[in-house]
Amino acid sequence: MHNAQRERAPLNKPAPQVLWPEATKPSHSQIDNRPPPSNRQVAETAYVVAVNRVGARVACYLQHMPRETITLYRPTGSKELELVRESGWTAWPPRLPGQPIFYPVLNEDYAIQIARDWNAKDPATGYRGYVTRFHVRAAHLSRYEVKTVGSHVHQEYWIPAEDLDELNQNIVGLIEVIHEFRRQPDQKDPTPG
Questions:
Q1: pLDDT at site 15
Q2: Which residue range(s) make up the domain with 59?
Q3: Which of these, 4, 59, 73, lies nearest to 30 by C-alpha position?
Q4: Cβ contacts of residue 97 below 8 Å, gap of 6+?
Q5: Are residues 37 and 53 in the same domain?
Q6: How far apart are CA 145 and CA 53, in angstroms?
Q7: Which of 57, 85, 184, 186 has a Cα-to-Cα distance from 146 of 20 to 30 A?
């Protein structure tokens, strides 16, 4: 009876799709002979499980889908944010002497950690930390390597100060403030603003 019910199922009904659980996601070598993308390749990979008409699980590989922009985050303090505001929210200010690298990060949680735990505890920032989000053309960022400076969450680009004008020219849209953290000088932990 169970098989008869399967045979009566409409053939044009779309098969359900579910994302692979991380523990069972197949490696690239299990799917095809292509190597996994390097940090320099800007790509997204999606894996799905499709259930065919008789209920068997079939692994499907979706091609690398190039992205036109990459979303970056920048934890910052009040002074730098004011300069961004003066630019019309379109550019990062030049680096100060002694700051040879501009460090945008790839993960919102990492940016929150820095803004909350460093910027908002610093008297030089007015005890305020901000997280900004902006989008940069992927083709421009492809020449820089992603650096991991702690756990897998702590990823950032190291953009030389002399390349910052070119990076600003490749920002798509506006720089947005997405989080604010404030702290009083005698307060132990910053509070979201």
A1: 39
A2: 2-65
A3: 59
A4: none
A5: yes
A6: 44
A7: 85
